[in-house]
Amino acid sequence: MTSHDHDHHHHDHSELSETELRVRALETILTEKGYVDPAALDLLIQTYETKVGPRNGARVVARARLLKDATPAISELGYAGRQGEHIVALENTPALHNMVVCTLCSCYPWPVLGLPPVWYKSAPYRSKAVKDPRGVLRDFGFELPEGTNIRVWDSTAEIRYLVLPMRPSGTDGWSEERLAELVTRDSMIGTGLPKQPHEVA
Amino acid sequence: MEGAHDMGGVKWSGPVQPEPNEPAFHAEWERRAFAMTLAMGMPGGWNIDMSRFAREDRPPEDYLSKSYYQIWLAGLERLMLERDLIAPDEIEAGKPLHPVKPVAKTLTPDDVARVLHRGGPTEREARAPARFAAGDRVRARMIHPPTHTRLPRYVRGHVGIVERVLGCHVFPDSNATGAGENPQWLYTVTFDGSELWGTASDPGLNVSVDAWDPYLEPA
Question: For B20-50, how does the pLDDT look when each residue is reduced to its tens digit (9 = 90+)?
C-alpha cells in the first residue's frame, strides 16, 4: 500500500482525478437514491476533523497520571464508541516500553486519538513494528535504552490500546491541563515520548 | 485469507515516515470516501468484519498499489455491488440508472453523535467457561482459511503464553461470511521475540496478539 498520494508519486494526476471523479459519482448516486444524507456526511467529517483527536487522549493520560489508573479517566471524560468500544491502557515504566500496531489493517482507538496517521497505516510500520520496534523508534528519532524491554501489542481484535507514557520529572503539583500539554499523540501509540516541561514553558 | 494486508514481519524497504502536523485528511475525496463508508453501514447492513474482508480480499498488486482511502473506496463499492445497491453502469454514468432498492434506514445528521458514541461493542455473554487461563501455554494453530481471519501469519505455529482473558467476543471468521456472530473466548497471547524471529531477535522483545479460542491449541 502506498503510504500516501502526496509524498509517493505512484499515482499521477490523471489517476488521482479518476479517484476524485469516482468518489463524486458515488456520492451523487447514493444521495439521489436516498441512501446517504450529505448533511450527515458533513457531520461525520466535522466530528473527526475538529472534535475527536489526540487532545482527548492527552486528557485521559493526564488524569490517569493523577489517578494512577486510566479506566476511570476514560469513562469520566465520556470517551467511548466507534473504534474504542473496549479500551485497555498500557503503562510505560523505566523497565518496559509499550508500542501499539495493527499489522492486518489500521485498528486504532478513535475516541481518544482520532483517526490514525498515514504512517500508522503504512506498510513500513505494519511490517516492522512487530519485528524491529527499536528500529521503528529510531525512524522516529529516538533510541530506547538497552535495558528497557519492549512490548508490542498487535491490535488483531476489537480491543483498542492506549499507551500511558511515563510522567516527565519536574511536573510535581502540575494540574491536569498542564500535564495534558506534555502528552503527544505518538507518546500514546508508543512511537514517541512526552514533551519535557521546558518544551512547553 | 493469505493477503497482502497481513504484513507483520514482512521485509519492507524504507523507514517509517512520520508527517509533522499531519491533517486528518489529505484531500476532499478522502473526506467524502471516509464519511460515505461510515454512513453506508446503516442502510447497507454489513458488519465490520465483512467490511474488512471486502478491503483485503483483492490481488496483492491491487492492494499494494492503492492508497488507504482508495482501498476503503474499493471495499465500499464491492459491498454495495454485492447487494445490488448500485450497479457498475451507474458508477460509469455517475448517476442512478436503476430502481432504488429499499433500505431499512439511512443515517441522518441527528443520528450521527449517538451512533458514533454507541459504536459496535463486540463482547457477548459467555455460554461456556473459558478453555484457557492466564499463564497457560498455547500454540497458535497453523491454519490457512481462504476466508477472513484475524490470526496473523507471523504467529501461526508458534507457542505463547495467555496473558489476559478478554471475555467472549464476536468471532470475525464467522461474522465476515454471514454465518453469524458465533462468539468465542478472546485472549491476549504473548510471544517471546525469539520464538517468532529466532536467535537474531531483540532479546528484550515480546509481541502479543489478541486471539480467539478457535485459533489456539494447548501447548
Answer: 999 999 999 999 999 999 999 999 999 999 9
Is A107 a catalytic site residue?
A: yes
The pLDDT score that the predictor gives to residue A148 is: 97
**Cell digits for B21?**
502536523
A63's torsion region: left (phi>0), alpha (psi -120 to 50) or beta? alpha
Name the residue facing B12 among A40, A124, A156 (closest C-beta).
Answer: A124
Q: Where are the domains of chain B?
A: 28-118, 123-218
Write down the architecture of domain B123-218 according to CATH.
Roll (2.30)
Query: Apex CA B56: angle with CA B148 and CA A162, to 5°?
Result: 85
Question: What domains can you pick out in chain A, each with its CATH number?
Answer: 13-50 (no CATH), 52-199 (3.90.330.10)
At A20-48, the pLDDT tens digits run: 999 999 999 999 999 999 999 999 999 99
Q: Which of A17, A104, A119, A185 to mutate to test the interface with B (most CBs of B within 10 A)?
A: A104
Q: Between B29, B39, B90, which is nearest A29 by CB?
A: B90
Q: What ipTM was estimated for this complex?
A: 0.97
A136 and chain B in contact, CB less than 8 A: yes
Based on the residue annotation, tell me whether A122 is a catalytic residue of this protein.
no
Are B85 and A33 within 8 A, CB to CB?
yes
Chain A: residue nearest B204 by CA? A149
pTM: 0.95
CA distance to A55, A72, A105, A115, B189, per residue, from A158 (Å): 22, 20, 12, 15, 15
* Cell of residue B219, nine digits: 501447548
CATH class of B28-118: mainly alpha
A126 CB neighbours in chain B (<8 A) are 7-8
